[in-house]
Design brief:
Blueprint lengths: L1 E5 L5 E6 L2 H4 L5 H15 L58 H17 L3 E4 L9 H10 L5 E4 L6 H7 L5 E4 L6 H6 L2 E5 H11 L1
Parallel strand pairs: 1-3, 3-6, 4-5, 4-6
Antiparallel strand pairs: 1-2
């Protein structure tokens, strides 16, 4: 499929042919859902921890007599029903990550790119380069392209001036082509690819 290429000034700059095996698929929500769950689970720190019964330092002496006290027959005070006692079955330090085959991850990225094409939310630009790192200039440029919530994927490296200018703009992410991922693509309304990013993604996903 062919799609027009624009400059940052919203002027036409030729066209590019997209691989139908990467950008022309019928999006599958189940694959996208699995991949987003995989990414979010993997990024969880899993450092939550509470003291359990064995971690609480309290006397192990029986609280009251076994019989004749008129109360329940309690043991020591480190159990969860007493103030200062440990929590029963509390969270422990662990990894939340789960496995997902490499082929499924690659297929999910293809479907995420295809979903943006299907929704008409993909824009191709010739390059993402600025002469000066001015946020105000980049804001005007993006408004000319009709972008207020977007992910911009550059080539192998992000232009330093462009990255600095984009740093203070809300709802705007900038990534190199090797950092392209399903979650960041889906969380923004528009996907902007440079011509170099298109070549890199097609080489990565073929």
């Amino acid at each position: 499929m062919k799609i027009d290429v624009q400059t940052l000034d919203a002027k036409k700059s030729g066209s590019v042919t997209l691989d139908d095996g990467i950008f022309g698929l019928e999006p599958r929500k189940d694959l996208l859902h699995r991949m987003v769950r995989y990414q979010l689970a993997k990024r969880q720190a899993g450092t939550h921890l509470v003291q359990e019964r064995g971690d609480v330092k309290k006397t192990t002496k029986r609280i009251g007599k076994q019989k004749g006290g008129g109360t329940a027959r309690h043991g020591n005070g480190s159990v969860s029903q007493f103030r200062g006692g440990g929590k029963a079955h509390g969270p422990r330090v662990r990894s939340h990550a789960h496995a997902l085959p490499k082929k499924v991850r690659a297929l999910a990225l293809r479907h995420a790119l295809s979903a943006k094409v299907t929704a008409g939310e993909l824009i191709i630009i010739d390059e993402a380069v600025l002469k000066t790192p001015k946020t105000s200039d980049l804001k005007k440029t993006l408004s000319g392209l009709g972008l207020d919530n977007a992910l911009i994927i550059a080539g192998n490296e992000v232009d330093e001036n462009f990255a600095l200018a984009a740093n203070n703009i809300p709802n705007l992410d900038v990534l190199p082509s090797q950092g392209a991922n399903v979650y960041d693509i889906l969380r923004r309304h528009n996907l902007v690819l440079t011509k170099q990013a298109v070549q890199d993604l097609e080489a990565r996903l073929k």
